[in-house]
Specification:
The protein is mainly β. The protein contains 1 helix and 29 strands. The chain has an 18-stranded mixed sheet that branches. Strands 1-4-7-10-13-17-19-22-25 form a 9-stranded parallel sheet, with no helix packed on it. It has a two-stranded antiparallel sheet with strand order 28-29. A hairpin with a 2-residue loop joins strand 28 and strand 29.
Length: 295
């Protein structure tokens, strides 16, 4: 159990685990730790010429005041971790993965519990085709502001596959998967994801949000389930029906719009898979529980 100060500051000087540019981490492993408190749970900052290589596996992170996770210029295997928001957190709940190349983010459970107003539970800037974001479970409760459950910006072929996202609470704005699609330079593979926003939520609810429809044809998007009461998503403009969505996202011929029933609000195992079948994606052969996928 690694415990930092119970402190109310956004300074990274009070991170529980801290490493900055000149201290390169080469094949460092954090496995099975309970990391609690601090301004940041873990803050690791490499450089473009001297990237860190880190395994972060089966850790439990809670009660960080500002960022539970902050990785910059790090080749990262981020696997089977649990990240929990706790009461007393700053008004913002962020994780941050910047220049995540040669990385795999798989089997993690990230949960917000309604204490912060602005939530970015799983946020990425710059990732490429060597990076997989798969089999993650993101549960977002927001009672007073805006949620970006999975925020992925500036991607060069990143694989976003088999993730489950559920948003609920009384907050006014909920984005499930947020993608930057505003340039020919960026693209990715978005497959087999299941994003549900509680139908009891009123206000702005987009299970998927794509910033522009001009360059969506660069992307490989299919076999996802997008559900909210109001919109299937936003593709440069709000789209209320699956048919309208598919006019913009022409690869999405097998998408669905189903209000999935999960085990409960903290466990996103599905009670039914009716109308939610999808083919196994190469490189993601097992599910979150480690069982082989058959379909």
């Amino acid at each position: 159990h690694i415990m930092g100060y119970a402190i109310s500051t956004t300074s990274n000087a009070y991170a529980v685990i801290y490493s900055y540019t000149n201290a390169k981490l080469d094949n460092v492993r954090f496995i099975g730790n309970h990391i609690e408190g601090g301004s940041y749970g873990i803050y690791i900052y490499g450089s473009s010429s001297s990237r860190n290589k880190v395994l972060f596996d089966s850790n439990y992170i809670e009660s960080s005041y500002y960022y539970p996770l902050y990785f910059y210029y790090t080749d990262l295997d981020f696997l089977h971790n649990t990240v929990m928001e706790a009461q007393g957190h700053y008004n913002y709940f962020y994780t941050y993965f910047y220049y995540a190349y040669n990385s795999r983010f798989e089997g993690n459970h990230i949960q917000t519990n309604g204490y912060s107003s602005y939530q970015y539970p799983f946020r990425f800037y710059y990732s490429d085709s060597t990076t997989y974001i798969c089999n993650n479970e993101i549960v977002c409760k927001n009672n007073s502001g805006t949620t970006y459950a999975m925020y992925v910006y500036y991607t060069y072929g990143t694989h976003i596959v088999n993730n489950s996202i559920y948003c609920y609470g009384t907050g006014s704005t909920h984005y499930g998967l947020y993608l930057y699609t505003g340039s020919t330079a960026y693209n990715g593979h978005v497959r087999n994801n299941n994003v549900v926003i509680d139908p009891n939520i009123s206000g702005t609810t987009y299970p998927c949000y794509m910033t522009s429809n001009a360059y969506v044809t660069n992307w490989d998007i299919d076999y996802n389930n997008w559900y909210s009461k109001n919109y299937v998503g936003y593709v440069g403009t709000a789209v209320a029906s699956l048919t309208d969505y598919q006019k913009y996202v022409t690869t999405a011929v097998n998408e669905s719009n189903v209000n999935v029933v999960f085990s409960d609000t903290t466990d996103l195992h599905q009670r039914s898979y009716v109308n939610l079948k999808c083919p196994v994606y190469q490189g993601v052969n097992n599910d979150k529980d480690g069982e082989m996928r058959l379909t």
